[in-house]
Each structure stands twice: as C-alpha cells, then as structure tokens.
Amino acid sequence: MPQERAPTRIQIKNRAAILEAALEVFSAHGFRGSTVDQIAAAAGLSKPNLLYYFASKETIYTALLERLLDTWLDPLRALDPGGEPLEEILAYVRRKLQMSRDLPRESRLFANEIVQGAPRIHAALSGDLKVLVDEKAEVIRDWIAAGKLAPVHPHHLIFSIWSLTQHYADFDVQVRAVLGDEDPFEAAPEFVETVFRRLLQA
Amino acid sequence: MPQERAPTRIQIKNRAAILEAALEVFSAHGFRGSTVDQIAAAAGLSKPNLLYYFASKETIYTALLERLLDTWLDPLRALDPGGEPLEEILAYVRRKLQMSRDLPRESRLFANEIVQGAPRIHAALSGDLKVLVDEKAEVIRDWIAAGKLAPVHPHHLIFSIWSLTQHYADFDVQVRAVLGDEDPFEAAPEFVETVFRRLLQA
DNA sequence: GTCTATAGCCTGATAGAC
DNA sequence: GTCTATCAGGCTATAGAC
After folding, report:
1. Which residue in A152, A167, A191 is closest to B152 by CB distance?
2. Model confidence pLDDT, tens digit, residues B120-152
3. Count of alpha carbons within 13 Å of B163, Cβ hemisphere only?
C-alpha cells in the first residue's frame, strides 16, 4: 500500500490513470462484467502493479463511485432558492443535459449500478441524496405555492429531469440507432427546454 | 437437444420455467453478472439439465431478448393514426407506465443491455425498432402539421415517453430511496399525463 | 430426461525477484 | 514500484451413468 502521507508525483499520476481507466471500463461493462486486466491495460499498468495502488477490484469501484457522486449532484445543489423559479429549473435542466453530453461514462456508471439494485451505493441514495432532493423539493413547493410555477409534484419533477436528460447518455446507442445520422444533441436542448417550459409556466 | 417437432408437456413447462428464471436473474445482474447456476436454481433444475434445454448461457439470453422485444414494442405499435391525436399519445404513455409497474424486470433487462452498448441486440435497434419509430414519428408529424398537437420534435417526443415511464422501473431503487414511504406509482400516472398534456396541447 | 462428477478456462489476488 | 509467475476459486460446458 502506498504511504498515505506523501504521495509522490508518480503515485498521483498512476492513481489518476487507474481511476480514469476504471471509469472507462466499469461504465461500459458494469462491475461484474469488467476485469482487472482490462482496467490495468487501459491504465497502461500490469495487473499486480494496479493492485499495488488499490487493494482490490471492489476498492477501485467504490473509490470511483464516491469520487464522482459529488460531481454528479452539483447541478442540483446549485439550484438557488433566491433565483427566478422557472429560470432556475431550466438552468438545472441545461446543466444536466450538458453533463449527459460531456460526461456520458459517469452517467452510465451510475445507471449500471442503480439498474442492478444499487448494491454498493444504496446508503448514499437514501442518505445524502434523499436529504438533498427533499430540500430542493421544498424550494420548488414554495415556488408553486407562491404562484411562480404551475403546480406539479416536486419529487416527480426532479425524477423527470433526471430521466429525460440522462436518457441521452444511458441509452445513447438506442437513441443514435433510431435517429440514424442526426446528432441527438442537435435537437435535444430545445426539446427538453420546451418540455419543462410548457410544464411549469405559471 | 430436445426434438423440434413434438415438444412434450414437460419440455414446454421446463422451457417456460427456464425463461422465467432467466428473466429474474438476468434483469437483476445483467448478462455477465448472472451465472447458469443461479438460473438453474431459480428454475428448479440442475445445471446440466438446464443446458439440455438451451445449448448455452448465451442461447438463453438471446432467446429471452427476442421473445420479449415484441411485447415491449406493442404499445407503440398500437398508436393509431386514425385516433384523436392527444388521446392516442396519452394512451401510449399510460400503457408504457403500466408496463413499468407490471413488468419492471423486462424493462431492466433491456436497460442493462442497452446501457452496456446493446452488444447482443444492436441489429434490432437500427432495424425493426428504427422502422417502427420512424413510421410513428411520421404520424406525429402529420398531427402537428394539421394543428392537432403543439409542435415538437417527434423522435425526441418518443424518447421522452420512453425515458419518463421506464425510469420508474429501471431506477426503481433510487426512486424509492428518495421518496421514502410514498409509493412511486401513486403520483406518477397523473404527473406523466400532466407533462405530456401541457407539452402537446395545441 | 435427469443426475453426479469433472474438465478446462478465466479471473482476482499474491509471492517473490529485481 | 514494477515485473513474471502462479495459486486458488468460480464459472461454463461436457462426459457418462442411470
């Protein structure tokens, strides 16, 4: 195990390379479908050398999930109770869609995990995630009560934002297979904005 | 291999039990994450006996996918060009949401497959599926041109119906973790109907 | 048709030289 | 810190008795 105190430049570089490789492999094949060999090859290391940095396949996976969860929830955290309601929601939608376009592997990593029952991240869902969502749902409820947004179920509104935007990352192959040559992200921004504008306009 | 000509009662029963067990296991763990032992146990058969009915793990999986794909697309096929536009779309949405509630394993089976790049079903996506979606998108386009629906991108409208409804099956654990005690399907029907009503009302 | 036993491969992890 | 070699366990699939 590398010393905790003073990570050398090469340690920092290798750990980063391993996590990047792990994201690439785990997001494409899920935990069980990925092999340590694949990750080592993608990181440009031998298998034992990779296991010098992370004790096990499981350790890499959970380190990756933890590291990315914060990034993943930042757009929702940024929802400002003091902002203009409809614009705040639409800005959130735009950030989420942008993440589906720019960070599709991260989206698919969580999708894989959750579709299979979230065995390694369930605590975070009913813990931090629930707290954050409940808090923002309350904000939305207040906006509706103040007549700033059309009435909708706040929690389901948030689910709908997740599903609509992440669909473009998680089901990317299907979307592209159906659209043919057309780039999904050509029409998607205007479409999703229209959905939520028409849904919420007071 | 069982004879193709005259499947006995016991053969029919065992093949059905195997496919039911395979749906249970594959939908929960994906192809790679499932073992033949698990499926055999769930079907109440020994592993070699299971492999007497299906030549390999792969064979079971593809048989299952083929068998379910038709069922899965039926709601879209039922979209009637001669019906009342908004009601046709809303009926489709309702059927899809009902399938997420009643057949969540089927939804997760496809979700697992597609998130991982659809390695075993890609041909069907850019083949039959694309043809069907293109055809129905044309119907929607006509409805919009006739002023019966508010203008939206037809393909993305279909994607949004898929994502919103299937989210409740595919991300079930997350939805329930966030909602706590509240049953997702209590508010979901009215919510999704509201989304598409406000989006499409001319 | 169904079983027990096992072949043979793949994979996660470790030993030990350098 | 990094490698080659290898072990131990789990997995798909088959052999062969009943």
Report:
1. A191
2. 999 999 999 999 999 999 999 999 999 999 999
3. 27
